Amino acid sequence: MDIIQAIKERRSINFFETGKSISKEKIRELLELANLSPSSMNLQPWRVVVVMEAERKKILRKCAFDQPKAEEASAVLIMIADPKGVEENLGQVLDSWQALGFIKPEMRDTYTGMVKNLYDTEDSLKRKLFAVKNTALFAMNIMLAAKGLGLETHPMDGFDEDCLKKEFNIPADKTIPMLITVGYLRQGITLLPRAFRRKIEDFVRFE
Questions:
Q1: Backbone angles phi, psi at 34, to 5 degrees
Q2: What is the pLDDT of residues 120-137, one digit of tens each?
Q3: Is the dihedral of CA 198, 70, 172, 120 positive or negative?
Q4: Residue ranges of domains in the chain
């Protein structure tokens, strides 16, 4: 699917075809496409828990304020922003840059210091915001890639984060910006027209 068409046709779906599964291979393809998302200094501070088993989706539904789509979708992605992604991924990022000729070996220390200055300590608000912003970029790529693969999605902000962390063994220092349900539109459902969108003039200023 053309990217412009995918942007125009992507919708947040509330009614998924129940009992219709997606293979792990298809989910892997989706995530590999989405993983091409940009991130600050290419640090990719995200993790994903893919919930596909029926019993696990029942538990997830309880953590999502009993919203049916959390159980009815073929899969639910728990999007995790990881503040520790800086320390965990920086070495691989610099190795790649060096191997590809982006930087010289003597520049590694300079970039390491730059990253520490930019993103502060792993327990800081600045670091948390860094992780959430980049995970949101990754999440949008997931939704567009899903549309291109013939799948529908819905980003969910209605959930109990503490419940999700407890039930799905997610460490306390991580943040869950959203859930993304993935599946197929239920047969017989006709979507209403796209709702209100602000005019460009309402939120854009040219200087």
A1: -65, -30
A2: 999 999 999 999 999 999
A3: negative
A4: 3-190
Helices 85-100 and 125-148 pack at an angle, to 10 degrees, of: 60
What kind of architecture, by CATH, is found in domain 3-190?
3-Layer(aba) Sandwich (3.40)
Residue 16 φ/ψ, nearest 5 degrees: -105, 150
pTM: 0.96
Please give the C-alpha separations between residue 47 and each of 10, 108, 115, 117, 187, in angstroms, as whole numbers.
Answer: 23, 25, 20, 23, 32
Chain mean position to CA 74:
17
- Token duo for residue 67: 């919203």
